[in-house]
Amino acid sequence: MLKTDVFYILILTVLTQNELIPCSVCGDKSSGIHYGVHTCEGCKGFFRRSQSLSNSTYKCTRGQNCIVDRVNRNRCQYCRLQRCLKVGMSRAAVIFGRRSKKTKEKVADIARQYQQQATTEPAAPTCYSSYQSDIQNVIPISYNNQPTPSQPVYISGGYSAAGNGLYMTPAIADAPINYTVVPESASDYAQMAIPGSEPPGNPTGVYPAQTMVESHDFVKGLTNFFMNKFANRQKDFSLLTDLFDQNMTLSDSWRRFANDLTEIIQNLIELAKQVEGFNDLNQEIQINLLKRNVFEITLLVLTLSYDIDSGQLALANDKLPRNSHTEPYLTSAMHDCVSTLAQRRFSPQVIAILCGIVLLESDFVPPPYVERSNQTLYSALQYELGPNWEILYSDIAEMRLQTSKVSRLHLECLIRVKQLDMGLEQTLPPLYKELFADMNMNLNMINMTTTQFQ
């Protein structure tokens, strides 16, 4: 690539690139890369909504060969969805929001091609013609936030002496050109960072090796703590009492259930303190993070005490039957969720890293406190998942949908039982009450999580 080309890539802003490249589905003005390809806001929203429905919901009455363009895109949902899939839109791709250097160069090449077309054919009406003057006035921008090529990266349980930086991400095909960039080694997988985020701000543009070593120590400390607290949770099921049994009242079952969860959550709070950035947050934000995410994290931990062969699930001191007499919806939903997770056979290290990722997920935490932790956690997660990380990431996205729904169901069932027994709340463990008593706020926060994954 010529120096002039490199300079052009540097001065071409992401916004201008997006506007130069039309929507791969309908040809309208694109707003960026959505679900793996350049699309407009309309096609992005349509594809997102289509993922909650079966493909059979859409029918074509015109031979499945309808024209999908800016004018006709709303006439046939079936053909529009097929067009989305044909150009490469993927639900898994939403997880990988950022692009690798090679991908960015390809996008710049595509943008340059469209600009050249506009220069040679000025009379032709195009979706990007109104932005030609903007390109000429773009000011050079600095990429000081990008790590230098000599920085260490997370590989094989540690950091190598050199690499391409922590902020590379898996390549997503950018329409209209179809291409694939395949990582060549384990270190390439390890260099991939948090999906959908930018590198944390650093006024110097330098990320010293000491910072990277500290990040590695944080992941190592997190996984070691998790192993000590949760990895050996196998129980003798014959010695455990069935919760929500017909011989136990609903209120008594809930008290025991709350006590079991509290014992697990106490260890999870200690685990949270191992997550870099969590202790830097004020106490109110820490509590809100736990209120929003701790039940989902509990479901992750319970995969280690689930017996796949017998289908039995142990809590701290009791076991949770799948088909209970007094809380059938909650117990069956928890079983289904934990069973699905357990069958993935994720290692305890993967579960520990996922716990850290879920803990920090929110829209009310100032980004500087969690960006570096998230990038480190995602880099470590991709290494632990191995060569099949891309497929497993898609599974994890579906998993998060399920855990957030079960978390909401838990709160709804708790609301109902408190209405049946007005004195129940006073007999619940204080920590459990603190985390789940303000159920309206919890439900609102969980609703935001559920919507995010739909």
TrEMBL record:
InterPro entries: NHR-like_dom_sf (IPR035500), NR_DBD_ROR (IPR044101), Nucl_hrmn_rcpt_lig-bd (IPR000536), Nuclear_hrmn_rcpt (IPR001723), Znf_hrmn_rcpt (IPR001628), Znf_NHR/GATA (IPR013088). Gene3D superfamilies: Erythroid Transcription Factor GATA-1, subunit A, Retinoid X Receptor. Residues 204-454 form the NR LBD domain. GO terms for molecular function: nuclear receptor activity; RNA polymerase II cis-regulatory region sequence-specific DNA binding; zinc ion binding. Residues 1-16 form the signal peptide. Its main location: nucleus. CDD domains: NR_DBD_ROR. SMART domains: ZnF_C4. Residues 20-96 form the Nuclear receptor domain. PROSITE patterns: NR_LBD, NUCLEAR_REC_DBD_1, NUCLEAR_REC_DBD_2. Transmembrane segments: none annotated. One of its GO terms (cellular component) is nucleus. The keyword Lyase does not apply. The keyword Repressor does not apply. Pfam families: zf-C4. Keywords: DNA-binding, Metal-binding, Nucleus, Receptor, Signal, Transcription, Transcription regulation, Zinc, Zinc-finger. It is found in: Nucleus. This is Nuclear receptor domain-containing protein. It comes from Steinernema carpocapsae.
